[in-house]
């Protein structure tokens, strides 16, 4: 699994509990804890990752 923003990879089929999941255009996109922390306001405002 890879981060939709920075491309960080994780081992295993499931993301770590610190990662964030967003549904954009009907597809799930996962963000690592670092990217999620940096863009928390945009994620909570439900802005697409292309905006931030």
Overview of this structure, please?
This protein has 52 residues and is α+β, with helices and mostly antiparallel strands. The protein has one domain. The protein has two helices and two strands; from the N terminus they run E-E-H-H. The chain has helices at 33-38, 40-44; strands at 20-24, 27-31. The protein has a two-stranded antiparallel sheet with strand order 1-2. The longest helix has 6 residues, at 33-38. The model has no long low-confidence stretch (mean pLDDT 88).
Topology diagram in text:
Elements: E1 20-24, E2 27-31, H1 33-38, H2 40-44
Antiparallel strand pairs: 1-2
Shape: globular
The number of domains is 1
Beta-strand fraction estimate: 15-25%
Percent helix: 10-25%
Output the helix-strand order.
Answer: EEHH
Properties at a glance:
52 residues, alpha+beta, two-stranded antiparallel ribbon, 2 helices, 2 strands, 21% helix
Summarize the structure.
This protein has two helices and two strands, in the order E-E-H-H. The chain is α+β, with helices and mostly antiparallel strands and 52 residues long.
């Amino acid at each position: 699994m890879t981060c939709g923003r920075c491309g960080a990879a994780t081992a295993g089929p499931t993301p770590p509990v610190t990662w964030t999941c967003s549904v954009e255009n009907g597809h799930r996109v996962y963000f690592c804890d670092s990217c999620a922390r940096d863009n928390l306001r945009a994620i909570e405002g439900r802005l697409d990752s292309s905006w931030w």
